Fold each of these.
Amino acid sequence: MPAALSISHLRKVYRRGTVAVDDLSMTIEEGDFFGFLGPNGAGKSTTIHCVTGIATVTSGTIEIFGIDAVKNYREARRLVGLSPQEFNVDQFATPRQIIDWMGGYFGMHAADRKRRSDMLIEQFDLTEHANKPFRELSGGLKRRVILCRALIHDPKLLILDEPTAGVDVELRRELWRYLQEINRAGKTILLTSHYLEEIERLCRTIAVVAKGNIVRNAPKAEFMAGGGLEQAYLTATGAEPDHIAGAAA
Amino acid sequence: MTTQEVSLPPMGINWIGLGTMIRREVSRIMRVPIQAFVAPWISALLFIFIFGFVLGGRIKEIGGHRYLEFVLPGILMMNIINAAFLQSTAQIYFQRFMRYIEETLVAPLSYVEMIVGMLFCTILRSVMTAIGILVIAACFGVHSLGNIGEFLFWVVAVSLIFGMLGLIIGLWAQNFEQLNSLNVFFIVPLSMVGGVFSTINMLPPYLRFLAYANPFFYWINGLRHAMIGFHEGPTGVGYALTLGLIVGLSLWLWRLFATGYGLRE
């Protein structure tokens, strides 16, 4: 069975020469809940953008369920849903339009789009806001719309780039429950977050990226051994050297 | 919260995706009807009224046609060009500016589907603009639409050319100043001197080569021939130029989309 996501020797150099990702390789098995950690500017979002087609790949290969994400990009993209860090939507459109259009782009028939968007709007408690312009919504409501948009075509691989940034505690916990539920049902999830508690609670496998490369990739249990996730993360990223970490422990 | 499975149809041409692109852009256009339609209609109305009706009454017939009939194709072509260019630049630039172009980039849409979807909207807006101007002209007693097939060819072909040019400029532009540069320095001046208001014979002989070197002349001339049967210069040059530009710009645009120029990081 192919991995949900397999990245091999990925390199991304921006037009002005900045190397954002350098020889990054990682694999996410189907059904995993994968945490992708790293400091700001480490290359997490660039990696995600290369996987989803927002960025071009300089070199290396990306396979989504065994399908080459560059050569067979249309087939590969059908399997992925992305909730990006930024609100990349038409600010004048309504949540219902935004979600429906995304379903349309993915080739869903009108009846399927209606059924699925009604369900998501209800699940994410957006019913009373569904026909308001996106720009009039609060930060938390906007985040919910972005999540609904990512889920409309029921992707096999769900990529969440800081999905709970700016979200209140209630929604965060509700979202955690939902993500655990869909993961149990078989959906593979790649999650980036700066909230280590979130990664610790949800993920089974964790990778830490620093300066465009994976510096540690292991099951959560290995990260938790010793000083806990925060300590392991700081050590891996070089923010806290090993000997200090050891002394602290 | 509960989960629910959906099934996606097999991947061929993504007709639903293509239709969604068009549906979405039409909804954006309908949010700005004054800018999209009323402005060119009022502009055309003023041109028809002042140049065709007020001044035209004092000008003798040209090639057996009233002056209003003579200038109408030029006014129509100027507005078609303007509508096509503004539609395509606005469409792609605002998607880039607000970053919702990423919605189509992450979707299973091919480059060709993206280009076709955008150009379809361009043609739609141009045709709507043209219909409105024809209705205004009819109010002034001008009903000349001699050859509908030829008329549609020029409307669609010129819309395509300026739609593609607009997309290329929209991909290249980094700000609103750049977005308007082609329109200000190229499209408006060349269309105004492309034979909208006068025939080539009205120009001094030593300046006539400028008209023949102006591509806008051939498009206005072509549309004028389609509408009232009057034309100057060789019509074959106009067809060859138009088809050559469509092929060349199509290949250029496809290449830009395929490499992600202006679209992907």
Amino acid sequence: MVELQEKLRGVVADLLENEKLSYVIGYQAASFGVGTRPLFIRSKEDVKKLVFSPLCSANLVRYLKYRKPEESVGVVVKGCDSRAVVQLIQESGVNREKVKLIGVSCAGVVEAEKVQNMLPEGSSFELVGFDEKKLDFVVDNKKISVNRSEVSLERCSCCEYQTPVVYDVLVGEKRDAAEKYRYSEVEDFEKHSLEERWEFWTAQFEKCIRCYACRNACPLCYCPQCMAELLEPQWLLRSVDSSECGGWNIMRAMHLAGRCIGCGECERACPVDIPLMLLNKKLEKSCLSRFDHKAGLDPKGKPVLAAFNPNDPEEFVMSGEC
Amino acid sequence: MKELFICTKDLEQFLNFCCRDAKLLGPVRDNQGVVRFCQASSVSELVLEDAAKSNMSAKKAVLAQTEVLFSFANGDDGPSVSDVEEKDRVVVVGLRPCDARGIWELDRVFSENVDEGLYARRRKNVALIGMSCIKPDVTCFCSSVGGSPGGQQGLDLLLSKVDDGFVVSICSDVGEKLVTEASMISDALKEALNKRDETLKNAEESIKKSVKTQGVEKHLESVFNSKYWEKVSESCIGCGVCTFVCPTCYCFDMQDESDRQGGVRLRIWDSCMYPEYSVHASGYNPRPDRLNRLRNRVFHKFVWMKNEYDFFGCTGCGRCVRLCPVNIDIAELVNGCWEAKK
Amino acid sequence: MSDDTSCEVFEPNIVAFLCNWCSYAGADLAGTSRLQYPANVRVIRVMCSGRVNPMFVINAFMEGADGVLIGGCHPADCHYDQGNYFARRRMALLRDLLEFIGIDPKRLSVTWVSASEGGNFAEVVRSVTEQVKILGPMQQLRREKKW
């Protein structure tokens, strides 16, 4: 499917020229190993560096918060990424007219580090092809294939929107939802008792170093001043310990309730491997079962906490006897 | 200094001997399989043989993320301030030469031209036992910034693996004291020393990344205003992970936590990559953009620290390169500055 | 039986955020009607239950609350039309999240009390206090005093 990459390059080159875009945000090879990293494309030279493969895991929509008001830009979006754009539209967080979306159908991304570990040592790595089942590499002139199933990201196996939900151009064939049930991890976790759950999460919160990489990697965390860093009032003390970090993770999960589109960038960015998606998915599931709401689908929709239904469930509300 | 030898089978016993009556810190593999740098209850928990690098550096052994500077109280006789009691003895086992050099740099920063008695009081309770690097990572570049896979700076003892044991290099008086009375240790034989030298030479030659650092502090200053910085900082998301995992980053914030009865003053790691780091009380921010902050970080490490202390504020451990979510590669960045247009 | 003064009954600290127009007035009515209810509740008046930020609840737990109560107007009766509907959604999600993390959601109670329902308020406070008493002191998320 290297044709996909060539087609994408063609589309980007066209848009850059015809739409007078300041830049297009895409992917290029990382500085080491097989991974990829963001690329800001402004010229034909830059287009030659553009790649697209299952190794393109970053959600580039996060860069829209840095767009200058007068700039028109383009961004390559996969299914989950496009939902972030829709969510931003719902919240008036992006000027849709200034953004050209280059949608790419995605069959799931893979973990670069896992792939690297499956490849032999060498000095040159090249991805020469990929399909639904495998990735083909040439390492120092030797061909080697890696099974996609062994290295794919968990969240992609239950992705419901493999085709972008909004785009100006679509590259690749339209795809259906993946098959796995989305909330099996959440439901498995809920089989544990309250004490066991707390034991698990305290251990996770103790690892947290409050680096805020999760927040900065997220396309939907774009507050100019984050509540976590306010001093007046101060919600979270500066000290880094279990209670403050627990407060931080709860705060962020609540701020993303009904808004998180499941790209998993937070979890990928976390340097201490906290399973952030487990928290976010729990709230995603609650929003679906309580309010029949899914984030980032209808540009004309309202965010779940900015809307209500007079018949919203209130089984938890207490009433007195009188 | 003297070089000794310990058989592989005696290593654990030897290390336990060194760590008696002390808190033990080192690389531990957690139940997700990730190597963490944290407290261990025994040497058997540590991952020493692996080339695995912990995501977090050993910096927290000497500069805790949240540290009590002093406490104060409102007593019947009026307000009083008390020093915090000294910490227990700490022995760090299994840190790599890049991490140890980071601590060596911090030692100098917190002692030269500043009156940081607290750091010194705590530091003297920390002993560092390092392991030489046999297999540098693809992101390592210690040899470009004054370090090496067998570097001894900052360490008290350095263990270098050879076929049937470890060469133990004594790097300081503290190291000397640690091995005194260790009965399972013997003098190193020539074969062991030769094998050690060969291993270190191979390790150094296998380092793939290199950074042209000769004179870079002067060159960087000349390209301060270059458009180069726009290009390199564009993909930065300002997350600060680089500063948290770095063995030499030491910027900190201070805050008091208190109630009517008393409180503490805390020192907490901060990051120059956040806008809040430099914002003034008036609201004005001298480093308003990611460009300013990224450039500032590079300059701090490669210009100002070099000018002030004659070492780069970087030990080439490669953590920031590996863990940056958008793969901003500081080695690539510094190499690129030589081509930057002024 | 000896008088064992070392055995203290746990008296929970419960913080209640009550909306000015309905639940606070209802609480006030309970007071003026001389209705007896447990003194464990400390009231913070807010203009509307919709004003309650989830971090109020978290901060309350951090600072020593064993339970939190949010009081608002009955649905369709909110003084500001919709505030209580938003609060209902928000608190539902917060309770789900707390339960998922391992914090008993019974520590966070939500109730609708109108300005004329003094008795209802007293009864709710009785129930909440009893419930939190059974759960015991809240140690999760508690801020540690470092001095």
Amino acid sequence: MKRRAFLATAISAACTRDRRPRLNVFNWSSYIDPAMIERFERERGMRVVYATYESNEEMLAKVMTGNSGWDIVFPTHSRLAPMAKAGLIAPLDHARLPSLGNLDARFRNPVWDPELRLGVPYTWNATGIVFNRAQTPAPRGWSGLWNPALRGRLTMLDDPEDVIGACLQKLGDPFGSTDERQLQAARAAAVAQKKLLRAYLNAEVRDQLVSGDVLAAQLWSTTSAQAMHGNADLGFVYPEEGYPLYCDCAVILRETSRSAAAHEFLEFLLQPDVAASNARVAETATANGAAKVQRDPVLYPPDEIYRRGIWPEALPPGAQRYRDRLWTEIKSA
Amino acid sequence: MRQRALGAYAALILAFLHAPLAILIVFSFNASRFTVWEGFSLRWYRAAAQDPQLADGLVNSVIVALAAALLSTLIGTLAAYGVWRRADRVLSGSLYLSLVTPEIVTGVALLALFQWAFRFLHLRLGLYTVIIAHVAFSIAYVAIVVSARLRNYDRTLEEAAMDLGANEWGAFSRVTLPALAPAIAAAALLALVVSFDDYVITSLVAGVDSQTLPMVIYAMARRGVSPVVNAVSALIVVGFGLIILVSQRLQEK
């Protein structure tokens, strides 16, 4: 009897636990201050179901069906156009987002979404070079990563877009080139560099940089900034040949039935204090210009450096397949 | 001499098996966030305890593992018994097939099935699809453990029971089932652990409200932001270690 009573209360508790209107948010891991979610729930009387993904592909695989249940996702800027083309994105209602003006000037009319119809820029970063000042001269650009002195103590990202892009830029070609001759030259450069490489690593390389084991790495500015807090000998370079910038944007999915609540959440994220908190916890650069955060030049490059950066676009499917094949050849070379 | 070499060999194998876990546990107590030792600290355990996402993931994982273990033990035991009674090679082979199918294939197939079904039923992926998927792949584990036990079980015992007046159900429930009980318990534990561990299939069929602990950990590890992952993993290792100890105790009794 006692057990049955317990079950009954447990079940009724599970059913009545939350009658608050809910909002389903799907974001990158460690990309928000959990206290801000609680604050939003408290202030608006809503319940936020929050889950995380580890790549654009994982998120896209879910929302592609148009029946995923998510209301808000955070794709990288280059995915916005293809997602819009696939009919997945609900256009932003600017009347409900009066705080869009808080965005940094760089993000008020971004090249990928000039009128901010698709997504609200949230956080951004760049791919550059982190290196150990004490043990190696500062590289000026990508070409410095072909230095034989770095043999065995150099890593590149485990990412076809970034590696092939860096090889193209080293050779003076555009990061998003679809020209087969340029791409073949980039492949040859990558294969030549492989003799010097320890491995293709993403965020995992951070601790090897801190311990002084790896001397130079192609790495994101955000992860580099974390490593630099752990080892004062580390420096970061925005390559002179150019470099890619990435911005993750908050997007409302077309499938949502909670458009008003979703806009409320985006408006909340645009508040300067919320954006500052989120940027601090995620240790990344916020697109919010009004947020009061320390503007570390590693995360927030000054204008003359920022101008060298490019915002990669999605490649046409044929070019993407060609690059995927090159990447397989590079990795198995 | 030989004895000592054997001991050294065993120690090496044990180190090979457990050194990575030992290192993980040591660094979960590190004061620094990097894999450079700076001193003892419980900060990552505190951070883990305060992370609402990890808590949600743990709750989901426990619900899924318990439900999947219960259902798959029930279905798997009956399946093993049925296959054993029929002594059919094709049927028992099909159980092995689902065991050796690569997880990614099972996951994609289940996802395709769900997406197809959703066209008629107005549903979407959620915790229940994760449970269905886990039951689906756990059944084979359960059935194989139980049928191993059945292979050594003397069928004439059931016949003897029926000679003595038991009907078929009575013979099954009062003679066969008690004889299988240890295997069924072991199978349930195996299903529990396999379900709790699973990442690949889960990540494919999970939707809103169904992020399990392995999914949270994987997403965290990929971004590499903090050693909270170490702390949680250490707790999981210790937790499962305790389950193994308890199950061994139970078997001795």
Amino acid sequence: MSSTLFTRAPEWRWLIILYFFIGGLAGGCYFLAAMMDMFGRPSDRRLARLGYLVAFPAVIMCGALLTLDLTRPERFWHMLVQSGTWRPMLKLYSPMSVGAWMLMVFGGFSLLSFLAALKGDESGFGRLRPPGLLGAVIAILGGLSGAFLAGYTGVLLSVTNRPIWADTTLLGLVLLVSAASTSAALLLILGWESAPGGGIRALARFDSWVLVLELVVLVLLVVSLGSVAALWLSAWGALLVVGVVVIGIVAPLYLYWRAGPAHADSPVMGAVLVLIGGFLLRVVIILSSEMA
Amino acid sequence: MPEPMGFFTDTTVCIGCKACEVACKEWNQLPATNGGLNTLSGDSYDNTRQLDGIHWRHVKFIEQFSPDRRQGRWLMMSDVCKHCVNAGCMEVCPTGAIFRTEFDTVVIQSDVCNGCRDCIAACPFGVIEINPVSGTAQKCTLCYDRLRAGLQPACSQACPTQSIQFGPISQLRPRAEARVAQLKQAGETQAALYGTDEKMLGGLNSFYLLMDRPEVYGLPPDPKMPTRNLKPSSLWSVLGTVALGLMAIVSFRSRGRDDV
């Protein structure tokens, strides 16, 4: 019997599920926007702009959700500053501690890129976006901290002693890949009307590849859980198969694949399903352990 | 510097009187459940049921009966925070609220904790919970205030059978080993110590003499540190980031000249 079954649930519920989902979108949208800015065509800049416009408001929501989830929200700053000594509070081996700092770091970069995206290239803020050197540095550091935000949540779950979470080391990868697929889906929906063209097609292609990767990683996740995977022989497992795999991965892959003149809106429908599947994935991962 | 202190709990002499629970509540001014309303578990003589933010001691009743109830035995065990030498709760706490005292015990500072609840998920024994009055994570302090004043913890002082023994770990361990040898000599072959092996979280400063498998007492057979997963989890995430980056580059780079 796994020793993780003898522990208590921290009661991380809907606020945390929402945080995981929105945090994934914030980090993922920024990451994709930075990649488009650095490696895409000039025509992709409109699409990348949407990513920056999503990331900053999303990360603000993340901070609010995390603060509200504390049982003493007025002490949220104890994560960053030692109360009493006023020294910085940072533990490199505590994912929550590093995560709190990275949320601030990513918040800073996403604010700069948000201003650049909001004000446009004509203003001085335009330099905060690639291709200039300053813009490239911001995009690289912001993109990396965004990827961190998208994936550390799974690492945090694994660095506990709770069933499912601590019985695998793949949750960080699972949530990271899911953040990439949901972010590509969100940008595809937002850019469908406002930034149509090759960028959208590239996003759909990217999302298809990521969905295949996600499917592979999910299979590896179940295998890595060993006997603890039996906890998913329940309604949670059904939700994982139907909600996450069928609705959130297989159906979107089909809809992306069949896109063409006859099914012009097919990718948008696929992207909506990817978002639903990504949310349900977080519901299953968090609540199936909470209720174990 | 004082030497490491702790509890040796000999479950064979526990009579389930719960004096330790009461003494703990009295000394630490812990509130009653539901404001003192009489809430019964309904399926056990134990109505405390668990360790949590307002129960820092819990006398477990393990009621083992045959289906026809002709045969049965009660195992009793006064459970408490294990004050692990390698403490998972302290490791993950992002505020630094959890610290190790000069007595090698583990204490949560209620004025620092902000209630993130990471320690609850990290504790291998399910000891910690939120105290609804303070809104902070709380557990046994091994009566840190009493120890500093040269007193022993309230629970061990109240225990009428010496099931809970307090003292320096260096003295408690040989005493526990002698007790196991005595029991085995008397034919109690299942008697074993839980938590004295330093392979278990560096050793538990609150350890037990059990008469059955740890699982029977609700204790994990193989408790581990939460950070065992940190490096592999992080490595997978880094590899994932690289893979996603390459996929994004290929997606946005390799497309037809006209595909703008």
